[in-house]
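Justification of computing resources. Each target in the renewal requires a structure prediction run like the one illustrated here; the chain below, 443 residues long, is used simply to show the kind of job we budget for.
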Amino acid sequence: MAEPQTQGQGAARKGVFSYPSFRRLWTASLVSSFGDWIGFVAVIALATRVSKGSGETAVAFVLSARLLPGFFLGPVAGVLLDRLDRRRMMMACDVGRALVFVFLPFVNSVYGLVLASLFLEALSIAWSAAKEATVPNFVPHDQLASANSLSIAAAYGTFPLGTLAFSLLATVAEAVGHISFLHSLKTDQESLALWADGLTFIASGLLVRSLTFPRKATAALDDDEKPNTLRDLREGWKFIGSSARVRSVMLGLGAGLFGGGMLVPLGSVFARQDLGGGAAGFGALISGLGFGVAISVLGLSFLQRHLKPEPVFTGALFVAAACISLGAASSTMTPAVLWMAGLGLCAGAVYVLGFTILQTNVDDALRGRTFATLYALIRVCLLLAFTVAPLLSRLLASLALTLGSHQSGVRLALWMVGAIITGAGFLALYSFRSALTETPATT
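Resulting structure tokens:
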């Protein structure tokens, strides 16, 4: 079990922001997330500009590069986080990301952007995993759901602010473009956005530097035994494979994100062809999904003390499966949007409570590897969803025609996702019941 909290328990009644260390860590996350969204939009714009052919292909190539590093580098980053000083690791990641954004405006090829995206994502995975592994050291366990809700708000709530800031930078770029001594520098909108992003990571690094991280209880080594990356990787994978609670969270989050991710490539087709809503219809579906997530995250921050994370996590998976299946069966926009809002409500609960369960039940010496593996799984599931969804839709449509049915391939694909999430719910239910006889995780 994770180590007891060392901070005064009286503050728990006042909320997680009453803990200075968590407050500064959350602020660092807020600042870097805000800058990250500015950089995200700027990189897409830059990829479109430097591409020699299709801008859409260049953007897809660059975005795919941001999903791949987690699969290969996530577990290794986890070992480093469990062996080295997490505060210094986070500061190094912030400095590394700032340097990348300083030089990105001078990249003139899609391949250069892909390489930069690979490096950026590897650093982001390490930073995020270190943050999630550290949060239980700053707040009591009965406040973790609230802390995770706030973390999600910081990570995704800054998206509209980041896109707005990128738009405003166009005005700034036009103004500074008339300054003669700046003509030798790149002062276009994308460059200013990327440099602004670099500054946010410097600010984040300074905030992290002000934190005092508790000493980690790393795994004990024999006198003749030295740190070994492969051995540590095997140790982490063995723990993840043997822990019923960790398996439940990994399966649930993976299946949920796979289903939610499929809405991105299939949603526009579903809204246009099956619901007759056009481009505005797709926006309504995504808005419903986002609205549901926002309500869930906000509600959990208030109700977390009255909820048992594991039963709610499992129940949310089953309800999410029902929502996506009923949404796919809808023939008009209004019920489809409502069911997508229900899906978002459940998805937010699964995400927040999944992180809470891991933080509560995984020892500090294994948290880095556990969360790095989780982030790797998240990226792989999203990449699979983006890639497989259109192919699966076409395959199922062809199969339906062969069988004499004219059912939409998109509907069939979404129903299949509902079945996958239902299966993950049953596996999570079985794993959580097995965990009742499980010894708490220690190293």
